[in-house]
Amino acid sequence: MIPQSNNQNNIERAILSTYIFEPKELEKATITYINFENPFYQNVFKTIQSLQKEMIPIDEDFIERKMGKDFNQDLYLELISANPISNVRAYEYQMIQYYTQQKYHIEVKKIEENTEFSFLEKVHKIETISNEVKKEMQPQNNLFNILTMKDIEPQTPVFFLRDELPIQKGEITLISASGGSGKSFVALWLASMLSKEGKKVFAYLSEDSTANSRNRLNILKKTNPNLSLGFEIMGKECRPQPFIAKEEKNFIESEYFLQFKTFFSKYEIIIIDPLIAFILEDENNNVEARFLLNILNEWCEKEGKTLVLIHHHNKGNEVRGATAFIDAVRLHYTVKKKENNNTSRFLKLEKSNHYVGKNEFEIVLFEESIGSNRKPSDTKKFENQGADNGRSKN
Asked: Structural domains in the chain?
C-alpha cells in the first residue's frame, strides 16, 4: 500500500470540512467512505451522510452523539480547522485517483506473488486491471465522456409491469389526462402493482389527503383484491414546494429538492402527482421545464431511480405547458375513458423510445359498468366516491 502523504491527509480533511460547513456539497459528493484512508475520517463521512438522510443538522453535538465511542474530540477539532474549499469536485477526483492507484498496486502485487499463474497469465491479468483503473480514474463530471464502442457492454432496457402497463426502469414516465379522468386512481393502482412486485415504492399524491387516498385504494381493492398495501405515501397534508429555485437569472436546484432526494433515497420508484405542484414559475417556459426534467433525469441516472410523473391536460385536452415535458421522458401515456365503460381506464401510449408492443392498456378499476344491474347514475356515484371532496377539477 502506498503510504498516505501529508498532502493526501490534508485533501481528506479539507473535503470533510467542506461537507460539514456546506452540507449542500455533501449531497453532490462523488466519493464514498471507502475513498478515505483515515479511519476516523471514514467514520465521520458515514456519520454526516446518515445525519443528512435523517434530516438532522450536521453539527458537532449530533456528530458526537451519532459516533459514540468512535468520536475523538482532538481529531475532530483538527478536522474542522481546515478551510472549506470551493472546487470540492476537483479534490474528490484526486481522492478517487489516489484510492484507485492504491487498489491497483495491491492487486498487481497479489498477481505477481501468485505462483499458480503463468507469466503470460500474469501479464494478461495486470493489463485487465490497468484498463479498469483507467476507466475508474476518469473524472466523474466529465462533460465529454468519450468511449470506444467495443468497450461498451450492451444493455437491454428493463420494464416493470410489461404486460399490465410498462414502466421503464431508471427512467421517467409521464402519465397525463384531463381533470376528473381518474389519474389519481391510476397512480394508486400503479403504486400498488409495483409494490406487489416487491419494489420499494413511494407516492406523493399532493392533491389529496392520505385518508382520501386510502379510501380510493379500498374502492380499487373491490375489483383488484390482490393489490398491495406495502407502499408509502404523502398527501396534501405535506405541502409541496418547487424543485428548482433562481439565483440571479439562473435556475438552480432548490434546497427542498436536495432534501427531497436525500429523504427519499431509499425508494426505487417514486410517483409524483401532479407535476405542476413542483414547478417554480411558469409551466409554459421551455427553459424552466427543461431544467426541471434535466435534474430529475440526472437523479434517475445517478441513483437508479424510476420516476412516474402525473400531469394535467389543458382545456383542449392536450398536455399542459412546455413541450420539454414530453421531450425529456422515455414513456408518455394519456388516460382515457370509453363510452359505456365506467369500470376501466385506457392508457394510450403516446411516446415510447425503447418499448415495442401494445399501444393501449386497459386497467379495470371499478366493480360494475353501464349495462349491469347498477344504474348508470349509481355507477358514476360509486366511481367518484371520495374522488374530489371539494377540490376543483382542472
From this structure: 6-141 (1.10.860.10), 159-383 (3.40.50.300)
